Amino acid sequence: MNIERRDLRPDDVQFNILYCGICHSDLHQVKNDFGASRYPMVPGHEIVGRVTAVGSAVTSFKVGDLAAVGCIVDSCGTCPACHRDLEMFCEGVEGSTLSYNSQDRVLGGITYGGFSQTYVCKEKYTLRVPENLDLAAAAPLLCAGITVYSPLKHWGAGAGKVVGIVGIGGLGHVAIRIAKAMGAHVVVFTTSPSKVEDAKRLGAHEAVLSTDPEQMKKFSSKIDILLDTVSASHDVNSYLNLLAIDGNLVLVGLPAKPLEIGAFNVVKGRRSFSGSNIGGIAETQEMLDFCTEHGIVADIELIRADQINEAFERLEKNDVRYRFVVDMSTLS
Ligand code: NAP
Ligand code: ZN
Description:
The chain is of the alpha/beta class. It has two domains: 12-143 and 279-330, Alpha-Beta Complex (Quinone Oxidoreductase, Chain A, domain 1); 144-275, NAD(P)-binding Rossmann-like Domain (Rossmann fold). It has helices at residues 24-30, 80-83, 135-138, 144-154, 170-181, 193-202, 213-217, 237-240, 264-267, 281-294, 308-316; strands spanning 12-22, 47-54, 66-69, 72-74, 97-98, 118-122, 162-166, 185-190, 206-209, 223-228, 243-251, 272-275, 300-303, 323-327. The strands form three sheets. Strands 1, 2, 3, 6, 13 and 14 form a six-stranded mixed beta sheet that branches. Strands 9-8-7-10-11-12 form a six-stranded parallel beta sheet, with helices on one face. Strands 4-5 form a two-stranded antiparallel sheet. Helix 4 (144-154) packs across helix 5 (170-181). It is globular and about 60 Å long. The termini are close together. The model has no long low-confidence stretch (mean pLDDT 97). It binds NADP nicotinamide-adenine-dinucleotide phosphate and zinc ion. NADP nicotinamide-adenine-dinucleotide phosphate (NAP) binds next to helix 1 and helix 5.
């Protein structure tokens, strides 16, 4: 379909989209798993492009620069959350504006995402990626990267901490790399035998086939921070029992149905069950700089635009190593 991008306003950056990753949230949205999808929908929120025009008041981007956009493209800018650089929790009447399927504060109507040729975003919400990164492989950092970086940093992943990553998909495999670069001891929990074998290559120190109770028992009460990226319903209780005293299970995966928690699995060990949602704009830039410094990008399968339906089907079947990225030049 044809969509119109808005005319440039003084604080806008316009860019041609080079690459856009496919996040499992795109699949949830397309299937209306959260009950809030509006159609027609243009998903895509892991966007890297090259600037084609800037508004008169823009100072930090010029034509020809690289530009990137993740999940958040606007917020009120004045509420306590925005003042704390937590735009994803914007408390303004409209909340934060997401890159697609969100009320468009500027034009009215609904925002359209990155599976398209161009994007227009306010300078304040536009991010920088360096020229020397593999740009297609860097695109997934815009959502997968920040979604795992933010909680790992917030809860103190680093030297002396044992970090478990549950579910090795787009988010999980980037989380292994980021947690390791932060200095933590990284243990992978996967339901896929082939990923147990691949975990060391990805940088994990240890890997556990989570369907094997004997392997799970070995890590009972051993994990300080457990990052749960699983996209579907699953039993979190067996993971809560892996937490050490004062350990914390952080849910970032978004199963459509509520999860059940046995009281004794949290009261024992004074354990916490928590969650985290993407990250603010300043922290997203910090994450991009951190990944550049540590040479972290995603392992991707680069596809053409006409392969997108097949990619969504494969993502649903857990058949991707580890992120699909669309080469948007193939759309024209
Ligand atoms: P993904 O690439 O599909 O990875 C999900 C992983 O979960 C799979 O690779 C698989 O890992 C595991 N898994 C899938 N189905 C399972 C099942 N039935 N039982 C147990 N494990 C299962 O997805 P993603 O893009 O990384 O996203 C993961 C989740 O995070 C999605 O729900 C997405 O919507 C959500 N998300 C949340 C935020 C946030 O801000 N909170 C941001 C982005 C995405 P193994 O093969 O290793 O078991
Ligand atoms: Zn995402």
